[in-house]
# Entry
Amino acid sequence: MIHDIDVLRFVCGEIDSVQALTSSAGRGLPINDTAVVSVSFAGGALGTITMSDAVAAPWAWDLTSGENPFFGRTDENCYLLAGSEASLAVPSMRLWRYPGAIGWATELATDRVPVATGDPYARQLAHFLAVIRGDERPVVGARDATATLAATLAVEEAAAAGRRIALSGHGTDVFGIGPGDRDQGLATSVNSAP
Amino acid sequence: MSAARLGIGVIGAGVIGRTHLSSLTQDPACEIIGLADPMPAAAELAVDRGLTHYTDHGGRRARPDQLDP
# Structure
């Protein structure tokens, strides 16, 4: 789930607060295998995350993106981003918007947004090596990663406490590291494996 | 290891760790100096790839000559 929270922060901006229900009933292990999360973003958007490691389901990043041949690929989506002027399904990159006047009576037009392909593991490694050599600055820094970790830990805290958990300073409560630079965004729905 | 190659230790030999191993193997700029994972399958993988196997990430200290400070 932490990767999906990372994606949410990248697309929709910083997370303000979370509420959550979690369960370990699927596997019966000490660690949770299933969660539903409500997310509030600083930009005003709301999001939901539906996550389980104990279901037979096609709606996870690894099963839909085709990035790693280990995983059997499905033709489904794992992220649904709903905006006031258009909506996008990922990773099909199917975009939905009104061709003219916005309204229920107008038929939505759909199109696919072109996206570059590549082996993310090879690109990640090339960047990692360049950072080690001092040739490049990290695309994702410790501050950014820590903010994602703080939001992820807040999900467990929210479920345990049974209430909404605010992320004061977007991660400043973890290791004293503050917010990174992220765009503000949209409402979203995420289906995720952990 | 030549001066130009970077020594990389891989921690975790699950699905993604093995994916990273494949990427690293194909990159002439690096040399894999060890694989750390407590699972028996990791030991087999290390033997298969000719890698030094460590049962935990702290094992990296066993070869300090090959790691940057």
Summary: Residues 142-161 of chain A form the longest helix (20 residues). The interface with chain B takes residues 68, 70-71, 119, 121-122, 124-126, 129, 132-133 of chain A (CB under 8 Å). Confidence is low (pLDDT under 50) at residues 170-188 of chain A.
